[in-house]
Amino acid sequence: MQVRHLLELYEQGNRNFAGVDLSQADLRGVILIGVNLQGANLKGANLTRAFLIKSDLSGAQMNWANLNFTKMSEATLVDTELTKANLNGAFLVKSKLAGVKLSGANLSGANLRCANLRGANLCGAQLERVNLRDADLSNANCKWANLSEARLIGAKLDHCSLGFVNLSRAWLKGLDIAGFDLEGVNFHRAKLSGANLEGTNLPCANLSEAQLDRVNLKRANLRGANLTEASLEGANLTKANLIRADLTGVHLKGAKLDDAKVEDILPKAAMLPELMDYSLYSAAV
């Protein structure tokens, strides 16, 4: 369908464009509010700064589409194909994206607050500075994704895959990720105060300069983790595995370290009671 014809039909009140072929179409800045684009072919289409508020794009093919700064609040994109699409700065507040395919997509600076991303594939996606506050990422695949400086406060992450994710400088305060496999995750300078990481698997994770005050790390596996200059004041590290972890310059005032495993931690001076709480010191000697 020609873009001009589409817009003429829209002006006439037509809202049903299910299955339409708009591949490679130039749709920059168009206003298509509340339209039905289910199953549409929008591969490679340019929708930069378009308005698709409350529109239904479920099952649409949107690989490589350009959705820079597109307004799609309360839109429905269930099972939509957006692999390698560009959604830089897109506005997707309260949108329904269950099962959406966003592998390798660019969502830097996108606003996905309160969005439903259950079962979404975000593997390897670029999500720097994305807003995911109160979003539902249950059963989503976020492996290898870049979530640096992302806001995830209040997000639901039940059974979300987070292996080797970059969460440096991310806002994760109060997040519940107890029991998660977080191998290879980068938490450099992340804000995790008050989060629940009980029983998490964090071998060789980068937690340098992270804010971990009052975090629950009970029985967490931190073997070989980098905790240099991290703040763990008031944290619960009971029975945590800290073998070969690097605690250079770590702040542990008021931390609980009962029965923590501390063999071969670095540096050796960190075992002094004035740097580590008495619980860790007594366990070490």
Roughly how much helix do the residues carry, as a percent range? under 10%
Name the CATH architecture of the domain at 167-285.
Answer: 3 Solenoid
Tally of contiguous helical segments:
2
Considering the protein shown, what is the CATH homologous superfamily of the domain at 167-285? E3 ubiquitin-protein ligase SopA
Roughly how many Å apart are the termini?
77 Å
**Global Rg:** 23 Å
Average pLDDT over all residues:
93
Question: Uncertain spans, ≥5 residues at pLDDT below 50?
Answer: 272-285
Following the backbone from N to C, one meets helices and strands in this order, namely HH
Q: How much strand? A: under 5%
What is the overall silhouette? Answer: elongated
Q: What CATH first level of the domain at 167-285 would be assigned?
A: Mainly Beta
Oligomer: single chain
Number of strands: 0
Class from helix and strand fractions: little secondary structure
Q: The CATH topology of the domain at 167-285 is what?
A: Pectate Lyase C-like
Largest sheet: none
